[in-house]
Amino acid sequence: MSVAAPLAPSARAVLRERGQREVFCGLTGIVWLHRKMPDAFFLVVGSRTCAHLLQSAAGVMIFAEPRFATAIMEEKDLAGLADMNEELDGVVTRLLERRPEIRTLFLVGSCPSEVIKLDLPRAAQRLAAQHPGIRILSYSGSGIETTFTEGEDACLATLARSAPVTSGGDGVALIPELLVVGALPDIVEDQFERLFADMGLAVRFFPGRSSTDLPAIGSQTRFLLAQPFLGETAAVLEDRGALRLAAPFPFGADGTAAWLQAAADHFGVDPLTFRRAIAPARERAKRALERHREQLQGKRIFFMPDSQLEVPLARFLASECGVELVEVGTPYLHARHLAPELALLGDVQISEGQDVDKQLDRVRAARPDLTVCGLGLANPLEGEGLTTKWAIELVFTPIHGFEQAGDLAELFARPLRRRDLLRI
Ligand code: SF4
């Protein structure tokens, strides 16, 4: 992997800002999590605003409704005139009677449920006792506590807590097992599974395709994070004695190779086997990237904070596509998980958190070729003649791994191409 002026994370000046922010709340994660675990159901305990957010974020509500819904809190609930727990029990009981195929029910907290201090973890325990055989868990997707992708983190953390614990018993040494952590599209999961198999490694994915098929997690677990926003989930695994394999994230040809290499090194895969296993796919990825390099080379890109994918994506664009980074904003900078990425990123302005007006001033002053930002900021910036990329697309599109490297570069190249055409 090419290294651009390595910089120790501790030596890096990070601009930390707190103020008004323009980021979706953690409920958004339901949009991709319900596809990943078709036997799970997400019941948001929230307001009509929450229901509208989900409906517009999902876009495909008509197909998705069977796997998520909103228990809408009315005025009388918020005013404390009704017993919310009683009402929730009734909603859940009716839902589970109507939908016997649900194996895991997530009660998802929202801003309104946080404000009235509805105790959803306790409600989940109570309801689980009333409905044996169904796993009932809770997490918060509220905009007070979470941004955008942190909803997935909160969901997976609660799922990990309910996974079985391994114990060696009688001093028997446990055989290390590899776990990839983070929701990935099935097609990407299949590609990674084949690559690991060619390296001679068995792998499991968390979450898997069934919410009930949970891996036992303990000191034998070695895990690779597939997403940079899983701080709480990683902490739950580490509390169980699992070991995180530090690596850059699997974006682009070099990023994916380095991610796989971390597992290969840990499990003692011999270098020749490793090279043979990844060479064809890595070559395909490099060829796919060449097609977009001409468009991206030398372009100035500004990342506004949105999904926590910004740092790995910026590294990919700079080191594999020749992009010049103006500023890389992220809602939260997990220094430990991002250390391998930061070491590869070079001397770039990184900002954490957001004071949106100040950041917009910096965008206007820099006038980058491309600004990666949330939906709400894209239109006003386009109106000012700036070219933008919706950050949310990067979460909804398969972008991990060798086979998606070209598509990932294309996501950034396309708006630049469109801009060039419009200018002509
Ligand atoms: Fe809005 Fe909060 Fe509901 Fe998210 S959880 S849609 S931020 S009210």
TrEMBL record:
Tell me the pathway: Porphyrin-containing compound metabolism; bacteriochlorophyll biosynthesis (light-independent)
The record lists [4Fe-4S] cluster as bound by C25, C50, C111
What Enzyme Commission number does this protein have? 1.3.7.7
Q: How is its cofactor bound, per UniProt? A: Binds 1 [4Fe-4S] cluster per heterodimer. The cluster is bound at the heterodimer interface by residues from both subunits.
Q: Does the keyword Transferase apply?
A: no
Query: Which cofactors does it use?
Result: [4Fe-4S] cluster
What Pfam families would the database entry show? Oxidored_nitro
Q: Could you tell me the keywords of this UniProt record?
A: 4Fe-4S, ATP-binding, Bacteriochlorophyll biosynthesis, Chlorophyll biosynthesis, Iron, Iron-sulfur, Metal-binding, Nucleotide-binding, Oxidoreductase, Photosynthesis
State the reactions this protein catalyses. chlorophyllide a + oxidized 2[4Fe-4S]-[ferredoxin] + 2 ADP + 2 phosphate = protochlorophyllide a + reduced 2[4Fe-4S]-[ferredoxin] + 2 ATP + 2 H2O
* Domain called Nitrogenase/oxidoreductase component: residue spans: 25-414
Which domain of life does the protein's organism represent? Bacteria
Q: Assembly state and interactors?
A: Protochlorophyllide reductase is composed of three subunits; BchL, BchN and BchB. Forms a heterotetramer of two BchB and two BchN subunits.
Q: What does this protein do?
A: Component of the dark-operative protochlorophyllide reductase (DPOR) that uses Mg-ATP and reduced ferredoxin to reduce ring D of protochlorophyllide (Pchlide) to form chlorophyllide a (Chlide). This reaction is light-independent. The NB-protein (BchN-BchB) is the catalytic component of the complex.
Which family, according to the similarity comment? Belongs to the BchN/ChlN family.
Q: Specify the protein name.
A: Light-independent protochlorophyllide reductase subunit N
Q: Which organism is it from?
A: Sphingomonas humi
User: Where is the organism placed in the taxonomic lineage, from the top?
Assistant: Bacteria, Pseudomonadati, Pseudomonadota, Alphaproteobacteria, Sphingomonadales
Gene encoding the protein:
bchN
